[in-house]
Amino acid sequence: MNRPVGKAALIINGKRQRKNPLLAHLKHIECVYEDDIKADFVTGATSCVLFLSMSYHQVMGQYIYKRMAKLGRDFELRILLVQVDVENPTESLKELTKLAIHNDYALIVAWSAAEAADYLREFKRKERSTGESLKGSTKSDYKDQLAQVLGKVRGINRTNALSLSTNYGSFRQIVRGAASVDRMEGFGDLKSERFKKVLSEPFAVSKPFSSTTTTNPPPAAPN
Q1: Which domains does the chain have, with CATH numbers?
Q2: What pLDDT, in 10s, does the model give residues 104-121?
Q3: What is the model's pTM?
């Protein structure tokens, strides 16, 4: 769906969002209220936002499923903006992450009403951008990506990481050639032993990971 939207105006679902506390933080942006839109906020001709507070979700668990089902795929870029306002959001965030992926939404998490409002302003400012712009920039070169990962190891600086990436070419080759890493420039005995120890440790968490089971969204709720 391509909806004509004024360049400066953020369209707000007046029926559902008029009392949302985040509106008090929406300054320096033109807002227009409409009661007949399916989304909570329309930020551009092809982009929209569904808003969800975590406290409301923990009480009304099926609400967001019904909203997503009703909205369908009317917009190319659909954003689920979640405001965390509970003490223990972990399990709910796991559930909502899977829900967003399953329904092709970009999930954005805010930790206050003011932060949620900031995100809305940013979405409106980038209304002509694609969903990729929300992910930030990433390096496409494999060696550079490998160097970034290696640089996370304690004691391995950017120069060391680039040297490893350039000389070995892949993570597999680095593991296989770990015994000779001390011959490389910039690797002393202590740094070499520390790096070898990291490579020899298991790449697994000590406790099994558990997550909540997410069901498919139910049919749209009747008007």
Answers
A1: 9-135 (3.40.50.10130), 142-200 (1.10.150.20)
A2: 888 888 888 888 888 888
A3: 0.56
